[in-house]
Automatic annotation (TrEMBL):
UniProt keywords, alphabetically: Acyltransferase, Transferase
Gene Ontology molecular function terms on file: acyltransferase activity
Gene3D superfamilies per record: 3.40.630.30
InterPro entries the UniProt entry points to: Acyl_CoA_acyltransferase (IPR016181), GNAT_acetyltra_YdfB-like (IPR027365), GNAT_dom (IPR000182)
Pfam families, A to Z: GNAT_acetyltran (PF12746)
EC number: 2.3.1.-
Originating organism: Blautia caccae
Full protein name: GNAT family N-acetyltransferase
Domain N-acetyltransferase as annotated: residue spans: 143-274
Class in the EC hierarchy, top level: transferase
Length: 274
């Protein structure tokens, strides 16, 4: 049997998460900071779990990958119990990864379907010496960098506050909760938010990075400006940035390396149509 774990008990399974990687997104959900669901093989002594992250809109397999009972039951559980909830969330696919590299061969055996799509994700960590000496991107004429707050989002002078607001609400339950737990910066040009860098997940003193720039304003250095302000604020507060992006996202990877981040590891990401 596979059981759903109540939110107040999420923290009880932190110890089964593998330590090979930081797994910030997983730990943020288990700490109750970010929203998710958790399903375990046992309510008393869980060894393996499946975790859903609202912001990621995907799942993580965590704990013991050699749990044959759990592995044998998971497809039926997804079809009969999770499929409707996933579709209700507006998705038509089951996206997942493991909390360590040992999960890869197990997951590929469990989900041995021709429709299974495999890709790679990259996790970057900051090299503090390279960060100190990287070349910063100065402001252009008619541009400004602002810390994102409620006054900014509610300002009648800003032409597109929904650009930032909708992204915040993808990852966080409310604006108030975001401002309580996290922060972000944006670049404004002629009263339009053209780029932002916000926190997607928080665990202890580590903050993940989420960046977006309006398509018609890309390749102008705005992403770098917003991210530099974000990382500078983190370091001032004694915190650390965490960068996770798709292997195929060359723009994100190039920016990370330009700012002094180095590739720490890659991991497999899988997608299966429902």
């Amino acid at each position: 049997m596979i059981y759903e774990l109540k939110k107040e008990r999420f923290g009880s399974i932190k110890d089964i998460v593998h330590k090979q990687w930081d797994n910030i997104e997983i730990m943020a959900v288990l700490s109750g900071i970010n929203t998710g669901w958790v399903f375990v093989d046992s309510l008393e002594t869980p060894a393996t779990a499946l975790l859903w992250s609202k912001g990621i809109e995907g799942f993580y397999f965590i704990g013991n990958p050699d749990n044959h009972t759990f592995n044998a039951e998971i497809i039926e559980f997804i079809i009969n119990h999770l499929r409707f909830r996933i579709i209700q969330s507006g998705l038509n696919h089951f996206e997942f990864s493991g909390d360590c590299i040992m999960w890869d061969s197990v997951l590929e055996k469990i989900f041995n379907f021709k429709e299974l799509i495999k890709s790679r994700q990259c996790v970057y960590q900051l090299d503090f010496d390279k960060w100190k000496y990287h070349k910063t991107n100065g402001l252009c004429k008619d541009t400004d960098i602002r810390k994102i707050d409620l006054n900014l989002i509610q300002s009648a002078e800003i032409l597109n506050p929904e650009f930032v607001e909708s992204e915040i609400l993808r990852w966080w339950d409310s604006l108030d909760y975001f401002f309580e737990q996290a922060f972000g910066f944006c670049v404004i040009e002629n009263k339009e938010i053209v780029s932002y860098c916000i926190t997607n997940f928080v665990y202890q003193n580590t903050y993940t990075i989420g960046i977006e720039t309006l398509e018609h304003h890309r390749r102008r250095g705005f992403s770098q400006m917003a991210t530099e302000s974000f990382v500078s604020k983190l370091l001032e507060d004694g915190c650390e940035p965490y960068w996770d992006c798709m292997f195929t996202n060359t723009a994100s990877r190039s920016l990370a390396e330009k700012l002094g981040f180095y590739l720490d590891h890659t991991y497999s990401l899988y997608r299966l149509p429902l």
